[in-house]
Amino acid sequence: MMAALTLYTKLETLPPDLKKEASDFIDFLIQKKSKKEKGKSHKPVFGSLRGKIKLSEDFDAPLDVFNDYM
């Protein structure tokens, strides 16, 4: 793990435009980490979609476009 002082020293050697780019990248990494943590906390509950998906009555019936092949 890199020490905060080492990171600060490296950051201070950069010109202003690269400091801005480094800051933007750090913000991106923070946002990426928070999205990843949100995704981990959600676990689907078995049966939670019951009643949400409907299949038509003729779901298993042959399609009309294939009549020539039957």
TrEMBL record:
| InterPro entries per UniProt | DUF2281
Which residue ranges does the record assign to the DUF2281 domain?
6-69
One Pfam entry for this protein is DUF2281
Q: What's this protein's name?
A: DUF2281 domain-containing protein
UniProt organism field: Imperialibacter roseus
In the record, what lineage is assigned to the organism producing the protein? Bacteria, Pseudomonadati, Bacteroidota, Cytophagia, Cytophagales
